[in-house]
Amino acid sequence: MSTLKMPASLPDPIINENAKIVLKRRYQRKDADGIVYESVKELFWRVASAIAEEEAKYDGSSYKPAKLAREFYDLMTTYRFLPNSPTLMNAGTDIGQLAACFVLPVADDIEGIFDAVKHAAMIHKSGGGTGFSFSRLRAKDSVVGSTGGVASGPLSFLKIFNCATEQIKQGGTRRGANMGILRVDHPDVMDFIKAKERDGELNNFNLSIGLTEQFMRAVEKKEDYDLVAPNSGEVVGQLNAREVFNILVNKAWESGDPGIVFLDRINRDNPTPKLGEIESTNPCGEQPLLPYEACNLGSINLGKCYLKGKNGHDSEIDWEELKRIVHLSVRFLDNVIDASVYPLDQITEMVGKNRKIGLGVMGWADLLYQLKISYNSQTAVDLAERVMKFVRDESRSASKLLAKERGEFPAYPESVFGEANLGPYRNATTTTIAPTGTLSIIAGCSSGVEPLFALSFVRNVMDNDKLVETNPFFEAAVKDADAYSAKLMEEIAKVGTIKKMDHLPEELRRVFVTAMDIEPIWHLKMQAAFQKFTDNAVSKTVNLPNSATKEEIWDIYWKAYEFGCKGVTVYRDGSKISQVLCTGDDK
Ligand code: ADP
Predict the structure, then answer these.
(1) Catalytic residue of the set 53, 54, 55, 286
(2) How many structural domains is the chain composed of?
(3) Is the pLDDT of residue 36 over 90?
(4) Which residues contact 304 (CB under 8 A, 6 or more apart)?
(5) What does 350-405 look like in DSSP terms, one character per residue?
(6) Known catalytic residue: 234?
(7) In angstroms, rounded to a whole number, what is the distance separating the alpha carbons of residues 216 and 346?
(8) 427 is catalytic
């Protein structure tokens, strides 16, 4: 617990109805009988004060902890910025593990595999998600030297990780989430692609195939490519790249799994290649990390950075305010690194070397609604680039300022920045765009950089609580247009979109588009626009109607590659019964 006393003048936060339920269920502290003893105000003060207190150990700091705690409190309780869930849950408590994202190595021996299972369980208990590459495991049926028997292969071990996750249930916080990645040149790649054929199988995993540049070129030329045994480095077979890509697309069409990640591209942006190769991301794909690395995330609510036009001027983005929030948020996330207690020494060491943080944005669709810009337009895509460039530039300049106060990240001299004399920075990366599945509920904003799923809908939160939500900007605009009626809102809640409601003003229908109204190409263009200025990756789902064809998915996967994305996830309406996460229903 922090020693900073809660000021008597601290204002009570305003909390939306959905947030009340979520906070109470998962975030506010409970006693041994499960009785909540912490108010929401106390929760935010617990987090603000614990993170601000880290400031005291830096002599060169431009802040006093008490003043900073108040600024952090205001930043969070006005929903301008929120740190990832584990920070909200655990800061200032005995658990003290504050990061959402971890990647663990899986070695090709029984001890290494079960070490990883154990370490994942420890991370899940504290609310973090884990990513693994299974590419180092020898293929099914290859010989095991010590016993003369045959190996069972990555897939059978994956089931053990899945089962262990199922049993942990995260001690009442949230159920675990994993990413499993296999390189496309692993001999078991076909089994892996088909691993989630049956619904419910491996339901605690998102799976992705790690694609290489060489593979993509072979797809283009319809050539064969080599399968390589990871334990011996020998070429043990060949597959036709185009055929593998087609099967990948078919499976994604059927169930949304597997996704794809472009490994070479991820490693091209690895800021510290001398510390190792990146082989996996966290569960939702937005955070590539080195083995044993962790990263804490935080998201700025762009919906709060809207400046209403005065005296005949157009409305615009409040750039000054955005800059202020970015600088304060970077300080917050850098302090989180120090405040966090990591479950393994190897992780503490790795995090200490690179000090990665992942500042991102949420409320993007809300901002566009306020600016009256439709999501599926070049204007929106151009603005996305401008906003994210601003966030990246300012977060880097904040990281530079911190480096002056506190020193650069220890691996800086051997990083790409150090070698090009670009820094020094305090953090090896500063930007990541998270899904913000729960944060967006707490902040009452649209999630990440996604369009709205529906203008009005019934949300299932956690164990069957039902919450009705109408987007506030939409409601206000309908009232402004004199089109509001209870009957109309009921109609909209049934279908979610107003695309086909010809009786509504054209301007409303242009601006208030939803995920399903947006053609896939605009989803991708938006993802690519944000990716261009994001150090890590962008969490984004390309939503498709049930009627979408396999050819369309082929096209999306290919364009994601051409547009410079680091990976892509598609979701065809109705194709998946259970989803690992990011929908708010398991949080
Ligand atoms: P939140 O809004 O709760 O902070 P996000 O939806 O933005 O979380 O997800 C960010 C990351 O947090 C994920 O990529 C994953 O690493 C981790 N995460 C999310 N949900 C879970 C979960 N149920 N269990 C474990 N980790 C999770």
Answers:
(1) 286
(2) 1
(3) yes
(4) 78, 79, 80, 321, 363
(5) HHHHH--EEEEEE-HHHHHHHHT--SSSHHHHHHHHHHHHHHHHHHHHHHHHHHHH
(6) no
(7) 34
(8) no
Any ligand 1 atom below 6 A from CB of 174: yes
Alpha-carbon torsion, ordered 87, 89, 94, 97, to 10 deg? -40
* Average pLDDT, integer, range 4-24: 95
184 is in which domain, residue-wise?
A: 101-281
Whether ligand 1 lies within 6 angstroms of the CB of 206 is answered as no
Establish if 151 belongs to a structural domain: yes
Q: Which of 206, 282, 301, 376 is catalytic?
A: 282
Would you say residue 587 has pLDDT above 50? Answer: no
In a domain, 52, yes or no: no
439 Cα nearest atom in ligand 1 = 2
Of 284, 289, 300, best ligand 1 pocket probe by most atoms within 8 Å of the beta carbon: 284
The catalytic position among 101, 270, 284, 536 is 284
Ligand 1 centroid – CA 491 distance (Å) = 33
Q: Is the ipTM of this complex over 0.85?
A: yes
Mean pLDDT to the nearest integer, 358-371: 98
Average of per-residue pLDDT across 476-493: 90
- Assigned domain for 197 exists: yes
- For residues 260 and 567, the answer to whether their CB atoms sit within 8 Å is yes
Q: What percent of the chain has pLDDT over 90?
A: 83
Question: How many residues belong to the chain?
Answer: 587
- CATH number reported for the structural domain that contains residue 241 in this entry: 3.20.70.20
Angle between helix 472-480 and 364-371 (nearest 10): 10
Inform me whether the pLDDT recorded for 112 exceeds 90: yes
* 213 among known catalytic residues: no
Identify the DSSP state of 10.
Answer: P
Confidence at residue 479, expressed as pLDDT on a 0 to 100 scale: 95
User: d(Cα 120, Cα 164) in Å, to the nearest integer?
Assistant: 9
Query: Is the model's pLDDT at 145 over the cut of 80?
Result: no
pLDDT at position 3: 82
pLDDT at 60: 85
Pocket test for ligand 1, best of 299, 581, 583 (most atoms within 8 A of CB): 581
In a domain, 92, yes or no: no
* CA of 245 relative to ligand 1 center, distance in Å: 29
Instruction: Give the pLDDT of residue 241.
Output: 98
Q: pLDDT tens, 84-94? A: 999 999 999 99
Ligand 1: atom nearest CA of 82 is 4
Average pLDDT over residues 528-544: 96
